[in-house]
């Protein structure tokens, strides 16, 4: 699977970790632990990509890490 950046933060009102995948619009997940949140985000990313393919929509290329000289 392609590697996309994930932003994970704690949501006090939700009492959960929240994961956002900026490169895949609307792709978000949550979890009661950090590890659950990461697992859920990976599953949602796979589903996002599968659904986009079914609809014939373009799949963004992961930006990857910045390389420094």
Walkthrough of the structure:
The structure is a single chain. By secondary structure, the protein is an alpha+beta fold. It has a domain at 7-54. Helices cover 30% and strands 20% of the residues. The protein has one helix at residues 34-54; strands spanning 7-11, 16-20, 28-31. The mean pLDDT is 92.
Write the layout of secondary structure elements.
Layout (H helix, E strand, L loop, with lengths): L6 E5 L4 E5 L7 E4 L2 H21 L15
Antiparallel strand pairs: 1-2, 2-3
List keywords for this structure.
single chain; 69 residues; alpha+beta; three-stranded antiparallel sheet; 1 helix; 3 strands; 20% strand
Question: In what order do the strands lie side by side in the largest sheet?
Answer: 1-2-3
Q: How many beta strands in the DSSP annotation?
A: 3
Helix content: 25-40%
Radius of gyration: 13 Å
Strand content: 15-25%
Shape, principal axes of CA atoms: globular
Low-confidence stretches: none
What's the total helix number? 1
Q: Give the averaged pLDDT, no decimals.
A: 92
Taken in chain order, the helices and strands follow as EEEH
Distance between the termini: 27 Å
Question: Which structural class do the helices and strands define?
Answer: alpha+beta
Major pleated sheet: 3 strands, antiparallel
């Amino acid at each position: 699977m392609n590697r996309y950046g994930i932003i994970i933060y704690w949501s006090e009102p939700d009492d959960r970790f929240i994961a956002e995948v900026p490169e895949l619009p609307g792709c978000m997940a949550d979890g009661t632990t950090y590890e659950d949140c990461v697992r859920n985000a990976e599953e949602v990313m796979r589903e996002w990509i599968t659904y986009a393919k079914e609809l014939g929509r373009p799949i963004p290329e992961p930006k990857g890490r910045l390389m420094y000289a």
